[in-house]
């Protein structure tokens, strides 16, 4: 039911500087930058090449929008670093329910809007051996309005996310 690693979420103090590091060092490009008041973050998606299974994987950089959200608290305690991993699935509700049957609590009763038009839920880190685990169903291009990639890459992302 979980088909790939969709992204690794990395908490950082300065989104622009961190994105610049990833782009300069690894040659990644910033595909989108969005803010989510609900999640308390400004986040960038950096596409990690293409994959041979028709999917793509991403690095998600997370900068807290204010004091209150989960990333702000995590950064204050831990400093910068890996905040969560996200598995891709065609059906976030079913995947969350399936984990629930194994006693793994979800953070939200229903999926919420995620990056680039996706629908997401989280599994509690205390039930996942210390790893905050996101389940994500991509739903079309979604973030097309915020795409910063070149047209070829944007078209590719639409194909991947459709
Ligand atoms: C907290 N804990 C973590 C953790 N955050 N452990 C591993 N990884 C993390 N990221 C541990 C923490 O050390 C505590 O352990 C315990 O959980 C409770 O921590 P807390 O500070 O009291 O935190 P809570 O309970 O207030 O919040 C924890 C949860 C929160 C997981 C419920 O982070 C949450 O709601 N996360 C889901 C939303 C989110 O993370 N949004 C930002 C990404 P001890 O000290 O008790 O042992 S948004 C995103 O990814 C998007 C939009 C996307 O991909 O599209
Ligand atoms: Co995420």
UniProtKB/TrEMBL annotation:
SUPFAM superfamilies: Glyoxalase/Bleomycin resistance protein/Dihydroxybiphenyl dioxygenase
Enzyme Commission number: 5.1.99.1
Swiss-Prot/TrEMBL keywords: Isomerase, Metal-binding
EC class (word): isomerase
Keyword Transmembrane: no
Superkingdom of the source species: Bacteria
GO molecular function: methylmalonyl-CoA epimerase activity
Residue stretches making up the VOC domain: 4-138
Keyword Transferase carried by entry: no
Coiled coil region boundaries: none
Similarity annotation: Belongs to the methylmalonyl-CoA epimerase family.
Protein name: Methylmalonyl-CoA epimerase
Originating organism: Actinacidiphila polyblastidii
Gene name as annotated: mce
